[in-house]
Amino acid sequence: MYLRYLHEGHIKTQFYRVERLKESATGANLADLVKIRFQRDNIDLTQLQFVGSDGAANMTGKKSGFVAQMKKENPHVVGIWCVNHRLALSVGDTVKSLQWLKRYEGTVQQINKLFEYSPEKTRKLEQISDQYEATFSSDRRKKFVRPAATRWTSHERANDAIYHGYEVLLQTLHYFTEEARVPDATAAGLYTFCRKYMFIGTVYILQTVLPIVGKLARLWQKDVLVFSEVKPLTRAAIDKLTTLKQTREPTLELRAEFEGSGRFSDGEIQFTDKNDAKLDQFYDTLLTELCENLESRLALTPFLEAFELFDPCRFPGVNDKQYGKDEISLLCTHYELDEEKTQDEWCNFRYKFESPPMSTKNTAGEVCEVVVQQRNVLGDEYPNLCKLAELALLIPMSNAWPERGASCLKRIKSRLRNRMKGDLLQAIMTIDLNHGAGDEDITDSVTAWRNKPRRNVFGTAHREDIHDSTMQSLSELVDSLTAKHRELMKLVCYNDEQDADEDSVADKKEQTPSPFSRSEAGSVKLQNSEILENLESTKLAHLQPSQQQQVKELIQEYKHLFQDIPTKTNVIYHDVDVRDKRASEIIAFVTPDELFQYKVMPFGMKNSPPTFLRMINDVICGQEGCEAYVDYVVLYSDTWRTTSNSCRSSLRD
Length: 653
Description:
There is one protein chain. By secondary structure, the chain is mainly alpha-helical. The protein folds into four domains: 2-82 and 399-433, no CATH class; 86-297, no CATH class; 302-393, no CATH class; 535-652, no CATH class. The chain has helices at 27-40, 57-60, 66-73, 83-97, 99-116, 119-131, 154-164, 166-179, 185-194, 197-219, 230-247, 249-256, 273-297, 302-306, 325-335, 339-349, 364-373, 375-378, 383-393, 400-412, 422-433, 443-450, 463-493, 505-510, 528-533, 545-557, 581-586, 608-619, 640-652, and strands at residues 2-7, 10-15, 50-53, 78-81, 589-590, 595-596, 626-629, 632-635. α4 runs antiparallel to α13, α10 (197-219) packs parallel to α13 (273-297) and α11 (230-247) packs antiparallel against α13.
């Protein structure tokens, strides 16, 4: 919730509260919540004059909407529909009424999804974009934005990206249609559609039309929007669109691009008189529909138009005695003012339009600001007109402030901080949104906060000293723990009897240890050099002394195969190379820096273990008594001599 009020003759808009609804967001529930909050904060409901909203049914419903519920407490309350939301609806209505424009919007959304959900295509787009560095401006790197009716300027930004990056887009789509190893059906369809004359013609038309509408949205999102600014800006935008319809500037620019050394003179896009006539018809229909939607959606209600009586440009002169009487009558009826007295005030006030400072003003808002700022002088003579001027300045024509508040709420109470309590959220949002609203000195507050015992964890030392000393202590602690961990692992890894019960320790020592026994730290893999140093006590303890000696001689003969760092041999490759380009593209992964591809097969994929096992089976194929199981090669036979010969044959091959 935001509050808009007058302070010393100036308009102030500040964040007020963020509240959690325990039930559904109906108009009645919202009204009850506001009444309770106003009562707690000692705010008189009779001071509430306007309610600005996005036009949702629960806010503007005639019977059960929030405004209707508040009128039961204060009949003077007036609901105001945000002009930015009405402007977005104007554009949306135009898109819905034109079938081709609706199809164009869907195509732009497909282009956005094609690159947003594919790192491979995004990387190729960047590569092709780099090739056009000498031809295009910096706008070529704008990503393809998804147009959405809920975002006030998204259509303009989406079309602008297509306009500046059209060549890059076509080259990228052509690559994934013709040159890629596996053609992409979506890219092929988009490539065909984007090469149509109607598509590029629509891009050029919208590139001229949408900035006019986007300028309105940006102007109406400023901090203070007075009611008197809406109608002139709307009229100016409609006049510009009407002029464009007559001059046909975008279509003439497009035709020039097909001539000489123009942008499309290479003949890739076909230009025909039939397509050109079809584009002209679309152009006329688009501007006609857009102008009609702007006029109907952005028209002021009779109540708001009544405040236009303060407009000096509309004032016909003091000789016109009837000017403003109907407006005064309407406003007095709504606010229950003395109509006869207010009419007398207006008859005298009209003469001030011909003298400074009123004569130097251009809008009704500027005149109202002068009246409010000079209330001490004019208040006694024109009390009712001063009140009407104050009300005119408080009209919330734009809902941009609450939209910013919703964005702030999403930043603060994110998915990782969704358990934040309401009082803390309220305090943080107040600091974030109202940080520049007051002139009070917060030095004392900051000092008190820092002196809190629960905040001053490290005593009174400076934060820089705390950081340096703490990081140094943590570094020393980590080094010490790492060294102790290594010593402990060595002791644990050499212990072959970790699972023995205390009652059978002696019997366990007399038994022959298994060659496949594991320690408790089974996840720690010993290096080959460490295993070779303790073969007799670990891996070969189950063999006879003569057999142990034969195995040791065999290992010494082929010691180069048992290095700590595995190397490639003539037969076995420890890494499975990913030579297939398609496979390399499939296993690509994204990092915060850029896109990477594996050169060898990673073991985190589903089919990596069977692929590796199949390679090992191909290597040992033909050897009797030799089988592969996961990462083991098992040799077996009936006699020791046969087993020894099999080992020697396997290592030699």
